Each structure stands twice: as C-alpha cells, then as structure tokens.
Amino acid sequence: MNITDPEFKNWEALVFDLINLYNTHTIDDDIRDIVLRLLERRDDLGKTVFLLDQLVGELGLYPYLNRESLDFRDKIRQGLFSAPESVNKTFHIKQAEIFHKLMSGQSVVLSAPTSFGKSLIIEAVIATLAHTNIVIVVPTIALIDELKKKFHKYSEHYKIITQSNQKTSSKNLFIYTQERVIESKSIINVDFFVIDEFYKLAPSNHNDYRCDRLNLAFHKLLKLCKKFYMLGPNIEGLSDGIEHNLDCNFIKYDYFKTVSTNEFYFEIGSKGADLEKDLERDKHLFFILSDIGTTQQTVIFCKSPNRASKLVSKIISLGTIQKKEDNTNLSNWLRDTYHKDWNLASAIEYGVACHHAKLPRSLGSLIVEMFNDSKINILVCTSTLIEGVNTNARNIIIYDDCLTRNSKLDSFTFNNISGRSGRMFEHYVGNVYILGEKPQQDLPLIDIPIITQSEKASESMLLQISDELDDVGKKKISRYTDQKILPISLLNKHQGIPPDRLLAFAEVFTDKCGKWHRLMNWSSAYPKKIQLNHLSLLMKDYFNVMSMGSGCVYSAKHLNNRLRDIMNQKSDKDMIQSEYDFRVSDNANYTVDEAIQVIFDFKRNLVSYNLPKIIFAINDIQKLIFERFSYSPGDFTSFAVQLESFFEPPALTFLEEFGIPFQVSKKILKNINLNEQDDVDEVIRKIKANIISIKTDSSVSSFEYEIVQKAMLYM
Fold first, then answer.
1. In which domain, by residue range, is 530 found?
2. In this structure, what CATH number is given to the domain that contains residue 104?
C-alpha cells in the first residue's frame, strides 16, 4: 500500500484500518505519522475526509481539524484547545498541556521535536497579558529579529526591548541574547522568563564561553523569578538533581510531531579528503535537485561559510535554474555596495542564496524573509540552521555529515537539522536527504553546571558565584581567589576572557609598566600610530586575536592597518577590493568571495565584538597597575566605544539589527538631525517623523527606501 501513489483510491478501507489500530492504543506515534501523510492528500479523500477528521481529533491534532466539517463535539473540543484569542491558533493536545502548566504557575523544561510548535506556547503566554515583565533569551541576534517581528502585534500592551540600554515602560517584553541579559541594568522585576535552545546550558567543550554566559544569564534571572519555560529539541534528560533543585517539570515528547518526514540516504564511498568526497556529494546533490526541481523550498546544510559559498556557485553552474526578475534590485545593490563579482549577488538573481553567521545581520534577515516568501528557493546554510532560523522548507539536504573536519554530526544535531523539514499547514510531509551516514541515536543528558556545580562548570563561571560555592567549588577556584595580582571583581567584569590570560598579561605588565608607560599613557579616540601599533601587539601576543575571526588578521602590523581603515571609515567596498588585490597578487586562485568573507569576519567577529572586549580589559589592567606604581594611567574607553560602532554613530549598529543595512542607515541619518545623546527610542521616533524627507533624498534608492519602510513596520 503506497498512499503517495496518485492512483491509490482505497481511502475508506485505509482509514477504517487506522481507526481499528488506534483503538488498540499501542502504536499511536505510527498512526499519527500516517494521518499526517493522509492530510497531504486531503483533497483526494472525498467523503472519507469526515472519518479522517475523527481520527485527527482523537490523536490530539486539533489545529488540523477541518473547521467547515466539524460536528458539535469537535467544535467544543477545538474551542477548549484554542490559544488566547489574539494568537488566532488552536493548540494540539500536548501544547495545551504545557500552556496550562505554565499558566498555573509551574515551571517547565520541554524537550520535543522541532515541529512540535514550542514557540507558539511563548506567544500564548504573552497573549494572556498576565505578566508585567517577561524576558525571552535566545541564542542569536537573528532570533531576536524574528521574535521581535512575531510579537510586534503585542506592542500596544508591552514595550518590546531588544537593546540592553533601552528605557523600560510599565509592561515590558525583553528579547535578549544571554550577553544582553548580563549587561542589562533594566532587568529588575521579572514575572516570567523563557530560555530558547536550553541545551546550550551544557558546555560543548572546555572553553565554551557562550555556555558560561548563558548559565550566568539563567542564574541572574532565576534570582529574580522562579517561573520559567525552557524549550529545546529532543534530549535524553536532565542531569540528576536539576529538576528537584529548580522545582520544575521536565517534560519529554520524543515522537509527538506535527509534520511527517521522509528520509533518503546516499552513501559516500570515498574515505579520502573533502575534495575527493565532494565529487560524490556533488553527484548526489545534483541528482536530488534534478529530481525535486529547483522551485521547491529547499535548505542545504554544509559545515562552513566557505563551503556554502562554493556550493552556491556549483548549483548556479548547473544551468537549470531560471532567473527571477523580482530579485534584481537586491542583486544590483549587493554589487554596488560590496563587489561587482560577488557570487551571492549573481545567485540571488536565480533564487539561490547562502546564509551563515558572517553575513551582515540585515542581509541575513532579508535572505530568510525572501526564502519564506519563495523569492529564494534554495538556501545553503551552515549552523545558523541549527541556531533556530525558522524557514518554510519542504526539503532539507544534509550535504556535510559533519560539523567540522573531525567532528561527525551526532544524533542530537542531526535531529535538530532534519526536524526543520516540513511546516504546519504548508508541508505536512517534509523530505530529508542525507549524503553520508546517519548518526546512531544517542541523545545527551543536559547538565546546568551553574546549578549542579559539576566538574563541567568552568572556573570562569564559578568565579562569578564564588559566594555560593561549596568547598569543592571554592578549592577549584582557589588559585584565583588566593592571588594578589588582580582583584576578583576585575576578573569577573571581563568574563569571556579566560582569567588565566588576564593574569598572565597583568604579570608581564607589572614587569614592563615603566617601559610601556609612554606607549600607553593616552586617552584619545584616535591613538597615534605608535600607540595603536603597541596596542595591536599586546592583543596579538597576550589575547590570541590571530585565532579569532577565522584568522582574518595575521600579524600585529596587519591588525594595526585594518584598525586604521576602520578609524578612517573606509567603506566595505574599498576594504574588500584592497583585500582582494593584496591576496590575489600572491595567489592567483584567490576569489572575491574569500575577500568578502575576510572583511565580514574582521568587522563582525573582531571589530564589533572581540577587540572592544579585549581593549576594555587591557584598559582596566593598565589603570590598576600604573596607579599601583604611581604612574598616570591612560584611558582607552572612548577608543573602544568608537571602535565597537565602527567610528560611526551607535545608532547605525542597532538599526542594522532592525533590518536596515549600515550603508542605508548612514544615508537616512543625514535627514534626522541625530544627537549624540539620542537613545534607541529617540532615533526610531526621528526616523518615523522624517520619513518623507528620507523618501525624497536622492541618495536613497527606491530599493533602500523599501527596506526602511519594512523595518519601520516593527519599530
């Protein structure tokens, strides 16, 4: 019996068989899977649809009930399982269970498949308007943007706050990354908090600093509020004691899915390097694309941005994809703004794109939006897919069966990727194509080290809660608490930089403070060449910046020159061209795409994040030690602050998060009389008040104005 066969007609007998099987109450998960597949062919079932709806209701899949053919009992049932009115959705039976637990004041840690609909429960809680201050913690800024748009309809009731320095109102919905939770001074009273992708509380390696910060954010929120909802994909369970210590319910639904999945495997016989394996991978990929066509919504997972870029080029080279005229404006804008030969600009014209963490945030957001609007049909992703970028993909192709060169996909990550195929009400059945091996099912136990104080808890994390530690924990950090070089408060202030690195630098600084004084006794936002060169040397020698941003800088001199480019406000286009011209002179195979990724890496990973963080730490250490030895200290604060915003008004950085590219913001800010003291809300107010002058500004293209208009919908 093949229900995907267009000639299959025996629907009534099939549905009766399913009802009889359901009455045995032994294989509900299998029956649910078949029912979801039948929903894909609902229009072919004729009068048998009535029986199918009865089964849909019995299985608790209430959102899928056909409202037009409901009997009295099903109408009552659907009414009972409706989410709050403003949500305009119906819960399935397990969603309703979680929602009612949360509304009764219980805390829940939910482990469930990607298609379960875990985030609908967040919206339902917001829609009750029962809480004054809600905090939602997400792993990426891309998800802040997504949720901000999703929950904008509640902005009449809650002020939606996404920046750590925004002013609060009487009722607030904070949507933050873990870093912003820690930074924020506005989170004082909390009624309810949410942690998305809670599995990230468990460290993935010895130096997992994002895990440390998520634990610290959780710790901060838990001190303010005991009511929470943590959600994530399938796991085995929580480490011993966590459920009791947190007074929460760990609820696990391994198999309750709202979409069904077909899995197809393509063996990779080669045992050599990627170059050899890729010949097989490409052959399989091209076969799959020719089979499913290039107009279905398809996400392709690969392990690195560089491979994503190359894969996009390979797909375009097939020559089987038609141009999409609607995408020409974006393609031309990318060429004008970054480089005329950028592969992504050409690919978007054909409805193909890549998405990874190195892209400017506004561009990444626009690409996902275009994919969900079917203006882009093929999206090549890296781990951004795992980080929770939600798409309407029918097909997932796992091109690389590994995360890095030596790290195979585990079952947990595989489930997280493959679970993104299909989508409620759009694709009842999704397809997953695996090029290589499917991992063995071995789901993890999740530890929350800031609660358990287990051996997985880093010393850096434990330092932050030193007054709460047991004797074992205190002994573990004793080499920091017993030393006299730097105060614990300074080590804690710069959490994210290994304390050993801070101490090692402070020791060297103590020996050389006399020699270094003339090079570091400055306080300008624009240090002299010799001063910046020395600072670059310190960051290279003591803070390992050469390993950051995929090695986008390779010497102190190179770092110094790059920083000068930022200080001089050199455009991305000019920086990319300079990078390409320099590298291609030594390597004829060097590509424009590689140059673009290097500049994106430098600006996003180093300039806007790691370098300011390191400079603030160096600043505090030099101040402490210079004063200890009666030298006048420098002050690098203004330089670090300016660097973090690329020596441009800080407004440009947060407007990027609202979906307005940096280059467009520079143009529109000329029209709004920006003051240095203007906060986020005032900048937004001024943009809205001056929208006519922005529209008539000849330097702002119609495409750029359209971007501003879209962003304003969620401001």
1. 483-644
2. 3.40.50.300
How do residues 468-525 score in pLDDT, each as one tens digit? 999 999 999 999 999 999 999 999 999 889 999 999 999 999 999 999 999 999 999 9
Residue 412 parent element (H or E): helix 411-418
Span 266-283, average pLDDT: 88
Separation between Cα atoms, residue 139 and residue 589, nearest integer Å: 36
Distance of CA 69 to the CA centre of its chain: 40
Regarding whether 496 and 357 lie in a shared domain, the answer is no
Helix (H) or strand (E) holding 509: helix 499-520
Contact 350, 343 (CB under 8 A): no
Tell me the per-residue pLDDT of 697-710, one tens digit each, with 9 for 90 and over: 999 999 999 999 99
Concatenate the DSSP letters of all residues of 659-672 into one string: T--HHHHHHHGGGT
Last residue of a domain, one of 627, 644, 661: 644
Residue 538 has pLDDT above 70, yes or no: yes
> Is 584 part of a structural domain of the chain?
yes
Per-residue pLDDT at 69: 67
Looking at the fold, whether 308 and 351 belong to one and the same domain comes out as yes
Q: Range with the lowest mean pLDDT among 82-96, 115-129, 278-292, 378-392?
A: 378-392
Residues 42 and 173 in one domain: no
CA-wise closest residue to 362 among 713, 704, 680, 658: 658
Mean pLDDT of 309-315: 95
Please give the structure tokens belonging to residue 626: 């210079």
Same domain for 70 and 132, yes or no, is no
**470 inside domain:** no
Can you give the pLDDT at residue 255?
83
Residues in CB range of 486: below 8 A, 6 or more apart? 502, 503, 506, 621, 624
Contacts of residue 250, defined as CB under 8 A and 6 or more positions apart, other chains included, come to 109, 111, 237, 238, 242, 243
Two tokens, residue 715: 């401001």
In a domain, 6, yes or no: no
Q: Is the domain of 668 the same as that of 543? A: no
- Boundary (domain end) residue, out of 624, 644, 664: 644
Q: How many domains does the chain have?
A: 5
In one-letter notation, the amino acid at residue 593 is: D
What pLDDT sits at residue 437? 84
Q: Are residues 62 and 118 in the same domain?
A: no
Sheet with 352-355: list strands edge to edge. 260-266, 429-435, 395-398, 298-301, 378-381, 352-355
CA separation for the pair 468, 330 (Å, rounded) = 53
133 within 8 A of 190, measured Cβ to Cβ? yes
C-alpha dihedral (602, 670, 141, 680), degrees to nearest 10: 130
Pairing of strands 395-398, 298-301: parallel
C-alpha distances out from residue 260 to 291, 422, 459, 651, Å: 20, 7, 44, 44
What is the DSSP track for 221-244? Answer: HHHH-S-EEEEES--SEEPTTHHH
Helix, strand, or coil (residue 17): helix
The total of other beta-carbon atoms located within 10 Å of residue 75's CB is: 12
Q: Which ranges in 176-304 belong to alpha helices (H)?
A: 178-183, 209-224, 242-246, 274-292
Whether 192 and 62 map to the same domain: the answer is no
Per the domain annotation, does 322 fall within a domain?
yes
Confirm whether pTM is higher than 0.90.
yes
CA-to-CA distance for 379 and 383, rounded, in angstroms? 13
Q: How far is CA 303 from CA 114, 266, 402, in A?
A: 20, 18, 7
Residues 234, 91 share a domain:
yes
pLDDT of residue 364: 93
Largest CA distance in the chain: 91
∠ Cα 635 636 638 (to 5°): 105
